[in-house]
Amino acid sequence: MTGMIWAVQDYTKTFDQVRGALLGGAIGDALGWPIEFLQLDMIRAGHGPDGMTDFLRGPDPDAPQQITDDTQMTLFTAEGLLRLSPGIDPAPVLGRAYLRWLRTQREHAPSPMPDGWLSSHQFLYARRSPGQACMTGLGLQEKQYTEPAPLGVPGPINPDSKGCGTVMRSAPFGLARFGPDLAFLMSARCAQLTHGHPTGYLAAGAFSALIDRILGGVDLRNAVHQTLAQLTGGPGAEETVQAIQRALRTADEGDPTPERVEQVGAGWIAEECLAIAVYCALAAERTGDLRAALLLSVNHSGDSDSTGAVAGNLIGAVHGLSALPMAWAGRVEGRDELIQVADDLVMNFHVGDRGTLGSRYPLDATV
Ligand SMILES: [Mg+2]
């Protein structure tokens, strides 16, 4: 036969980026967790003038580095998406995925018959300062999503909450190739499962849209500007717009420092957490030093594990797993499962081949 050209798409880069996003997040989470509640001067007093410069060494140097609710919930976001039938409202399906996460925070071990492969992993049952709005918000909806009653639209949950619990779990919406508009909408809608303040869910939507653009090949700065344009003028978007603008401005002021991170924010609230991630990703671009940028994302007085997780998601998506410090990527708790879920996202959403994924992610067809 002549004249036939088979275009075989190469997904190598996509695998690297999606793995990088999940592993990068876990690295930042694990770096930040020991100093989550410490002020910068305390971090410096305890760890030296540069603050944390590496994973802490416990009594067992080979023990995995602990991850927290940020990475745990991110895995359940990915699981929810992998169990979502096309064309179905994502909120109830993601709601049930987050309820599976909630179970891990209430129980000590997987049940004998866990609902899906992800819930079968013991490491997810560790409770490490989970966000209150996530716990209470999901607790309120337990019956709504688990009993066979008509669902209805979720009412406003925690209408005043704009904690970073939305942003820190929302990278997977941007890893699934929905396109920036749909990634934004799905992410913001599912953020409302726990956080009803517009900034809480719009910052999550913006983060997912930003990640989507990076996966789509847009460079970081343009992706940030396009995401700003997407947000600007939308109802309730002012705080998120201002925070991202602050990150851009601060990045242009000079070399990255913890003091400049603190100018951008503390990260306990959603828009600041996103802005710190943008600032640290821009720092990685400016210096070419990803290791330093990941450390920058945790060495400050704010919510170090969440800012580390979100910055790690973004830096990992931009540069790929192959560019992350291997000594760190190899040592995070849940490493193999994070790689598996990353690859499953690529197979399902990019390659479009569910193959045997149904055994790990039975479709949640409940409406
Ligand atoms: Mg945490």
Q: Could you name the key traits of this structure?
A:
367 residues; ADP-ribosylglycohydrolase fold; globular; mainly alpha; 18 helices
Structure in words:
With 367 residues, this protein is mostly helical. The protein has one domain (16-52, 66-356): Orthogonal Bundle (ADP-ribosylglycohydrolase fold). It has helices at 12-32, 40-47, 69-82, 90-106, 132-140, 142-146, 171-175, 180-191, 198-215, 220-231, 238-251, 258-264, 270-287, 290-296, 304-319, 326-329, 335-351, 357-360. Helix 9 (198-215) packs antiparallel against helix 10 and helix 13 crosses helix 15. It starts with 11 loop residues before the first helix and ends in a 7-residue tail after the last helix. Bound molecules: magnesium ion (MG). Magnesium ion binds at residues 68-70, 129, 305-306.
N-to-C SSE series?
HHHHHHHHHHHHHHHHHH
Structural class: mainly alpha
- C-alpha end-to-end distance: 49 Å
Categorize the overall geometry: globular
| Low-pLDDT residue intervals, each spanning 5 or more residues | 148-153
Q: Helicity range of the residues?
A: 55-70%
